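hey can u check if this looks right to u? its 353 residues, i copy pasted from the old doc so theres a chance i mangled smth
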Amino acid sequence: MAHETEDLNTFLIISGHGVKGLSEMELKDLPKEYVQPQSERPSNMKIMEEASIPIIDVSNWDDQAVLESVCDAAQKWGFFQIINHGVPLEVLEDVKRETLAFFALAPEVKRNYFKENSPSNHVRLSTSFIPEVENALEWKDYLSLFYVSDDEALALWPTICRDQLLDYMNKCQVVIKSLLQVLMKGLNVHEINEEQWSLLSGSKRINLNFYPKCPKPELTVGVGRHSDVSTFTMLLQDDIGGLYVRAPDGESWVHVPPIPGALVINIGDALQIMSNGKYKSIEHRVIANGSKDRISIPLFVNPKPSKVIGPLKEVLVESDEKPKYKEVLYSDYTLYFYKKAHDGKGTLDFVKI
């Protein structure tokens, strides 16, 4: 078989096949590199069957009930789904369709986007998470696109999905702004100035995640346990399911069922730090699927890399509490995250006081 003669890295990256190529070989067994330790396998997840993350209708952002629901969900769950958010359904469908179209490209075309060959660090196709530091690999391929400007995106992003992604990001702007205003009000920040916009949402990244059908899903993971380093993340998922979030009890896991037209929002570490722990960034993971391919598209809304993040003074004054986190340059925080395998919420320890 092909992958026995050539080393896995050559097959995945140099030849451009990715994990999708492994999946298409109809292997009976999982390559040993993907076998996770017992503790990380799905069979060890305690699932809370009845629970569900909040689903919030945001058709009116000015409604006090929306503000309360969003801020409450950000504190208790760190995860919620929003419906009636105003991003047209056809825009969401276009993004999903073009994500599938990108991963359906021939390996020799996709090969050009792997970070070893990509013309820019802002456009990179990868498999797993950080293969060079992982003891066990994750069963996924993903294209990561760092947004600088429309012009750069038009020049560098894959033409097959570029226009749809830019349209989607553009349509999400109103949602991002409204969500930030609501979340900030919950932290006693009533007017967001230019400086703060840059701190909260000065950079964005969009990932196209592809989780191919897996021969032995019980032995591996789609994505390991982690929390995001963003301010918050907006996730568009297809109808397959497989995303699990840590329940408020800190032990169980809760499935995030796909809801047509909904966007899943989760608080990231940056906002947990800025809110001095009032809003929670929550561990989440994706299980592999034995019968179907799954895609998801997270849009990460991040602080500008050159900004220093720390507990907001408004939060400390309002609640008269001491800072729980040190101030840190956001680019240093993300650098630390990308140096290690997914390890739950390990990155936050880097800034805890």
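The two ends are 52 Å apart (CA to CA).
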